[in-house]
Amino acid sequence: MNQSETKFPENFLWGGATAANQMEGGYLEGGKGLNIADVLPGGKERLKVLKEPGFNFEINEKKYYPNHEGIDFYHRYKEDIALFAEMGFKVYRMSIAWSRIFPNGTELEPNEEGLAFYDRVFDELHKYGIEPVVTISHYEMPLNLVKEYGGWRSREVITFFERYVNAIFNRYKDKVKYWMTFNEINSALHFPIMSMGFSIEKGEDEYQPIFQAFHHQFVASSLAVKACHEMIPGAKIGSMIISAPVYSYDCNPKNVLYAMEEERIFNYFCGDVQVRGEYPSFAERFFKKHNISLDIRDGDLKLIKEHRVDYIGLSYYMSLTEKKDKTGLDLTPGNLLKGVKNPFLKASDWGWEIDPTGLRITLNKLYDRYQVPLFVVENGLGAYDKVEEDGSINDDYRIDYLRSHIEAMREAIGDGVDLMGYTSWGCIDLVSASTGEFSKRYGFIYVDKHDDGSGTMKRMKKKSFYWYKGVIESNGEVLLKSIRR
């Protein structure tokens, strides 16, 4: 099929994506309890700090915590949703803050103020005909579960998660029909602190606790799938993974094999369990190599097999290039990952390599492997934006990035991939998860908020706002390099 013949499906789900902990603010309002994100300091060294053993999960008065205020969506959601509607969003991917619903995580009854807040948000979305796509747990969990139970190290957290899931499914069964369980679940291979609620202790073998916590999350995910299908007939519930194709540095078979092994454990391990419903064949050798022994209880594997996700949500920002021996080679930063610098690719302001062809490769690989619908729920360019004297923000670099990736999706559809939709990450500027910065901007909408905490919170439309509006209006037929305001 030629490019000119390939079209996006008529029911393609165009929209944008955010996360509660990166934009809501109101961190102690409405009965909300503290969560993991509330104790993560801002700044370029965030991930380095989180990777060090002994993180104490306490707020330090000498540090700045940008997530506390975010972009104040908690109070400004009507204004923001109106802007999403102006762009023509069909869907809006968001998350629910677990600690708004169960402040400590252990309560027997949910917090009504928290439930009512999301009622208002969903009602506002539906007023404009926008369908919410809701992530149940997006890089945050009640801080009490971290301190008292060690996060997902503990099997007991499954019970608390199931109670949370049942509460939101019961409350929003008539308002939400697209769900996802854990955001970027495979990210824990490198940074368990955000998604699993624990850090690796000094001298501890990191693989054992991480893979045991994975098992607990797989059980919890299957319980959520079961509950969703029973409580909300017709709803769809998916998994969500970071997806980054892994290229070999060269054609040396040793490097090709190394790249394959890296890609399997990172890109496919979680997907195999959540989509296929069983641990992959390569896991046995990996577990043996790393002395991993899982506590799997009676009924766990049956539950995982019988209650599998309906689709795969994925984030795609970059590809990864690997070499078994990296001595003397330049490494490039990325979305929680580091690989060998690829000489064929340019990079963003933050060093993330830009590879739209990698998105087409990823979509084809995932669909070939799983044969379930795919949904690109995160993709975007973090960049420095400048507000001109006349108030304009000319982000042609963002338009170029998004255009090339949307074109790659269109080609993947032509390849036969079943693609549900696309929600560009950070459709409105928010706090970066990896660095805690406001200056790393992704949005179509500029928010006047800065790394030192200053700013008016004023919302301003960037050039990309008008471009993306045209893309949605034409169902992807208009992929212009730029347009006039």
From TrEMBL:
Transmembrane segments: none annotated. GO terms for biological process: carbohydrate catabolic process. GO terms for molecular function: 6-phospho-beta-glucosidase activity. GO terms for cellular component: cytosol. It catalyses: 6-phospho-beta-D-glucosyl-(1->4)-D-glucose + H2O = D-glucose 6-phosphate + D-glucose. It is an enzyme of class 3 (hydrolase). Its EC number is 3.2.1.86. The active site is at 378 (nucleophile). Pfam families: Glyco_hydro_1. Gene3D superfamilies: Glycosidases. Keywords: Glycosidase, Hydrolase. Belongs to the glycosyl hydrolase 1 family. This is 6-phospho-beta-glucosidase.
